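Students often ask what a holo structure prediction actually looks like on paper. The answer is less mysterious than it sounds. You provide the chain, you provide the ligand, and the output is a string of discrete structure tokens encoding the 3D arrangement of the protein together with uracil.
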Amino acid sequence: MNILDIIAKKRDGKELTKEEIEFFVKGYTEGSITDYQAAALTMAIYINSMNEREITDLTLAMAYSGDVLDLSTLGEVVDKHSTGGVGDKITLILMPIVASLGIPVAKMSGRGLGFTGGTVDKLESIPGYNTNVPVEEFIDNVKKIGISLIGQTLNLAPADKKLYALRDTISCTESIPLIASSIMSKKIASGANKIVIDVTSGSGAFMKNVDSAMKLANVMTKIGELAHKETKCIITDMNQPVGHAVGNILEVIEAIKILKGIELPEDIEKIITELGANMLLLANKVSNIEEGKAKILENLKNGKGYEKFVQLVQNQGGDISYIENTDKFNKARFILPIIANKSGIVSKLDALTIGKLSVYLGAGRIKKEDKIEPEVGFVLNKKIGDSVENGEVLGYVHANDEKKAINVLKENIYEIS
Ligand code: URA
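The corresponding structure tokens follow.
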């Protein structure tokens, strides 16, 4: 078998066999297939897609490209994953809350991909937080405090780890076969019994409309069935950023404020209650969705979610004085206001534009070896539907480079009508 023939076959729109898919995944993981060959095949898959059988074979080959965790000693682990978005800090808020409700949380997250942020980059913006821990410690942490959030650092789905980073740098992120296999391979390898997936839909998501989000959801649900992992997909809106903050430190601060009960943006309340209730239902902790939603809000409001978050950060080596006092976090050098140029109602706050501008400011990567700037991004006080006055401050751009901040302001990210 030869990688050039496999690339040519997919380039010409043909179906790959299980053996060809396994040959590619094995070769790329071991290094006998180069980044540029993998990039060519990935682009061919992006353009010509894959059928369900090919996607399942790709998922399983990636899932078994490294170790497969056995979490059976932890009981019923219900995992959560998002297909990605802008300002998506849901994991930071929701997982400590569900852990405080007795669901063991053993979760591996990813870095930013394309214009979307990644939970690992956010966690690493907390000084000292270690996202790279050995498997025994990961499992021990869950046994000890009920939660561990780490990166894709264990040798789990290493093929996805390489492909995920590569896709980010070759404009191959928005593809159903690539997203479905990426997410489900990690979920299968990471040993959860049941999975809730937040399938985002809108300009700031990889799936631009509800139809394609539903297609992705169906593919992942089917793969879950085949792998004996009960999978529930929830479609959520990503036409504007989630919550108010976009950018790593800024999002961590927003998550902490929510967990402390200082604020709770409407969209975040909707997403955490919906996803959380489904997790509780899958774990048989509640008998219906409404009861689940009430439990999520209860443990947010009584501070148990916050306590669990503090324990998590401490246990992973993070400095909790930053959590207790978020003023300690580094700030961007230039914080410029975004001013309304007329009175009216905010009619558009495009998540894709903001995601791309965040990458431009340094919150995400263009090349896979790029270092991110954790302090840059946006705080968007006004959201779609809010009424604003001419001259009012709508939000702030946080930048380390003044020229970039000024360029971003020229983009008029708010549409007012
Ligand atoms: N999240 C993933 O884990 N993989 C993707 O491809 C997209 C979102």
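The longest helix spans residues 210-226.
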